[in-house]
């Protein structure tokens, strides 16, 4: 019997030592939920970094605990994390893939570790994988892994999905190791992205950098065919929908209502990242207050920024910039009984998020670049009363599907300003009509649908390849 192996940088679990014993907290994230239907079955398994620096002596205990959940750890030491993860993944690939090339570092040592850690993942995969297995690799930390596995197990079925954008060739070509990265990815049978633009950019880079042929969305390389396609990722929409009716969330909403009354809430939720357009969003909100004094005490922004990658200088700087700008706006407009911005630099339980999503009158999602952006979809799934307005950047993959949102260019401050005013003034019928359509999309094309169409296409691509070879 063949099995399915999921591989990603991180396991879908948080491991913490409590009272001298390691405890596992299984992630509630959408990807973990969607892939749960796969990795929890039979001999299937999910391989990834355990997410913490473990003493050698404790590895066996953790490995055993994880095994009971069909999880298999890759252990990384602090130098590997520093150079492969924070270095090459987050200081080289992340800025280039998000069109922030001036932030990119091209350090040989980062690249050396990126290769050796991809090798380390390969070894763990090969301890488990057998010919005939299906392997689904996730994201930009593991671009070299498909080809590494292909060399060891030439007939294995390998799918790869990239969660962040693939940039245009003019950006991608800047990376000194661009050919190696493409060759690594092309070890797959099927490569998926969130949008057709990503598919187009990838194919264009591959044909310019490598001596390969293409027919439509298929790349021919070394007598193999590799299909490149778009699979826009969905969320666990039912979970977000149903959460809004739970006692815990109803209580959260009640507390908001008591504190803020009928103030209109503009919601903003992101990880701390320069790709998310947080500064631009604040500037647009500032303009709304400065040009419309009538809104003073009638609207407020609730902004959650989840700490992320704060070892990297640009992220620390961004945090300082946000602190300053929020302080500046609050000090200029606040009144004794009202704050323009409620800013939280920490993460919250999903019930709090759900309460905010369902209470928020507007959700402002304005990334400079985003592979998909799940926050926009979670907001929609939480608007069970079918009101609320989504303002969404055209640079987010989600904007290709969520066309009834107010779509903005996050670099255009005037347009963002007008979008917020339009949302604040929108007639109720228009809000409902837009939200109805948005909800149909999000509830239908959910995470389970995404997993199914990727896995179905992977099987179809492989069967096609097998019959081509048999001829
Ligand atoms: C990458 C790509 C792509 C946020 N605050 C809290 C919290 N969150 C959760 C949200 C959402 C997730 O974090 C953020 O997902 P995004 O999609 O918005 O962004 P990235 O983390 O950058 O994800 C992105 C995604 O991969 C999937 O392919 O869409 O483009 O960059 O789910 O709910 N969760 C909790 N507390 C918080 O305070 N529990």
UniProtKB/TrEMBL annotation:
It comes from the Bacteria. Transmembrane segments: none annotated. In the C-terminal section; belongs to the trehalose phosphatase family. Belongs to the glycosyltransferase 20 family. This is Bifunctional alpha,alpha-trehalose-phosphate synthase (UDP-forming)/trehalose-phosphatase. It comes from Pedobacter segetis. The chain holds residues 1 to 471 of 723 of the full protein.
